[in-house]
Amino acid sequence: MTSGPAMSRPAMSLVPSPIRIIGTGLIGGSLGMALGAAGASVQVEDVSPGTMALAVELGVGHAADPAGPAPQLVVVAAPPDATAQLVVEALHTWPEALVTDVASVKGIVLQGISQEVDAEDLTRYIGAHPMAGREVAGVISARGDLFRGRPFVIVPHPSTRPEAISRLQGVATAIGSVPVVMGAIEHDTAVAHVSHVPQVLSSLLATTLLEPGETALGLSGQGLRDTTRIADSDPRMWVEILGANAEAISDVLDGVRGRLDGILAALATMPGDPDPAVGSRRALAELIADGNRGVRRIPGKHGGASDAFSTVTVLVPDRPGELGRLFTEMGEIGVNLEDFHLEHNYGRQVGLGHLAVDASREELLTRELSARGWTVAES
Fold first, then answer.
1. Distance (Å, rounded) from C-alpha 314 to C-alpha 350?
2. Distance from C-alpha of 166 to C-alpha of 265, rounded to nearest angstrom
3. Residues with Cβ within 8 Å of residue 115, at least 6 apart in sequence
4. Max Cα separation, the chain?
5. Could you tell me the CA-to-CA distances from 256 to 25, 198, 214, 292, 336 in Å, in that order?
6. What pLDDT, on a 0 to 100 scale, did the predictor assign at position 308?
7. What are phi and psi of 359, to 5 degrees?
């Protein structure tokens, strides 16, 4: 088979067109919005006519027309258990198109496709995984800026056409993402660490909140909200994701279980014991210290260790417009905001705005905000 139009568009074009998106949930819908804004003609289809109609109304793309032009790129945005079959169908339906998928697990998808298509068709398949999402699901929650500044993982296999990699790198760049290329096994191991196990542990922690009464829960602070935020996720979607990446997730959780057993053993010697077993305090201290080291390895907005940034905490009055004023004045001072979260407990008249900034700009920001009347908390 010779390369079709999908393989020969001018290099100056970052995105092919038209693009067919199969599945218009949060990720498929957001991709359609982002690709449309980048200049592509986006065709959408969904197993649910109602969902597809809503996607069209929200601006994801236009309804796919069987008599219309064939897509140059097909993006399958479906759960892992349905992805392989949809990719196979797309490869057969559009023999000149490049076909990708955005499932969050790649190994099982590649295995399923490889068993159903011939070697030549397989060259037109390349996996992808934009590392972005929200706790809320569905096309109604789609956003065209969802992928900006986020990694866009491109997952080729040994027979993927080289030009397919460059084409997806262009797509990633066009929607504001940072393209990263890795193999399927490497990808699945990575997301087990940074996405799938965190979901399991956050959900486990949240289940402990089913036990205490309302009075106890009334004592909750920002730390609990931070650590349980992703627990409020779609169970149906996560059952498929966890099952599809079971081996990699199990490997990580085995290590967690071993460490947890050690902590339980240390705690068992502590209560009321003036002379706990040797190493008990050390085990607890090492847990916290290793956690410190781990969290510092999480990259900042522009990559690199997070200890390149400092956090400036500002009291933000609970009045309309105050948060906007804070951001505006940061811009006037000339300090870029790397990350932000607002801690606002019920009944407080102020919130705590935690501003992550370049460490070299911390002193300037603290001094200038104080001069403008903001109360900056001591670190």
1. 10
2. 52
3. none
4. 80
5. 33, 11, 30, 16, 37
6. 65
7. -55, -30
pLDDT digit string, tens, across residues 107-148: 999 999 999 999 999 999 999 999 987 767 788 888 998 998
Residue type, 3: S
Q: Which domains does the chain have, with CATH numbers?
A: 13-183 (3.40.50.720), 306-376 (3.30.70.260)
Q: What's the pLDDT at 9?
A: 39
CA distance 121 to 254: 39
Q: Are the C-beta atoms of residues 46 and 55 closer than 8 Å to each other?
A: yes
Token output for 373: 């009347």
Q: What does the H/E/C string look like for the chain?
A: CCCCHHHCCCCCCCCCCCEEEECCCHHHHHHHHHHHHCCCCEEEECCCHHHHHHHHHHCCCEECCCCCCCCCEEEECCCHHHHHHHHHHHHHHCCCCEEEECCCCCHHHHHHHHCCCCHHHHCCEEEEEECCCCCCCCHHHCCCCCCCCCEEEEECCCCCCHHHHHHHHHHHHHCCCEEEECCHHHHHHHHHHHHHHHHHHHHHHHHHHHCCCHHHHCCCCHHHHHHHHHHCCCHHHHHHHHHHCHHHHHHHHHHHHHHHHHHHHHHHCCCCCCCCCCCHHHHHHHHHHHHHHHHHCCCCCCCCCHHHEEEEEEEEECCCCHHHHHHHHHHHHCCCCCEEEEECCCCCCEEEEEEEEEHHHHHHHHHHHHHCCCEECCC
- Which pLDDT does position 282 carry in this prediction? 86
137-190 pLDDT tens trace = 788 888 998 998 889 999 999 999 999 999 999 999 999 999 999 999 999 999
Tokens encoding 201: 């542990």
Q: Which residues contact 40 (CB under 8 A, 6 or more apart)?
A: 15, 16, 17, 18, 19
pTM: 0.76
